[in-house]
Amino acid sequence: MEPIDFWNIYMQGMRPADFMSAFDETDPVVCVTEYVRQRPAFYGIVRQRNWRETFAAGEPQFTRESVRAALITHLEETRPEWETVSAEIRQQRQEERRRRIEDATRLREAVAAVTPPAPEPEPEPDSPPEELPQPEAVATAAVDDISVEPVETSEVPVQDAGAAPEAEAAPNAAD
Question: pTM of the prediction?
Fold first, then answer.
């Protein structure tokens, strides 16, 4: 199969200029690699009318890399046809993005100029102002709750770690 045949089968009628401009890139290798990466189930198997024709003996089934190489080759062979058209499409997209950003900025500025800042709510005159505790007062209260008086303790007998208690016999001890 020729690279044009791969293009017609796997790109299903898409023009090379449209394909290249869709990725906003001028390098065919980058575009085709990204295209194949976005399709993890893309193995090069071309579906025919039924499964018997699709997997008929003697019909070649291509790997991802062979399809990728053929698509890149076709793009390189047809570069003069799509390069200028793709550049124009990319330029139009870039201008459209710039225009949308400028419109959004103007709209944001217009809304900010028209909309006055929200007034702060005033407290009702009948209610007393809320008093929040000061950090120093909270720290002092916490310190006041701590007792500095010595606490009585009793001794706890500690047994040697290697010695077994006398009351209990070891489970595997011979009688």
Answer: 0.53
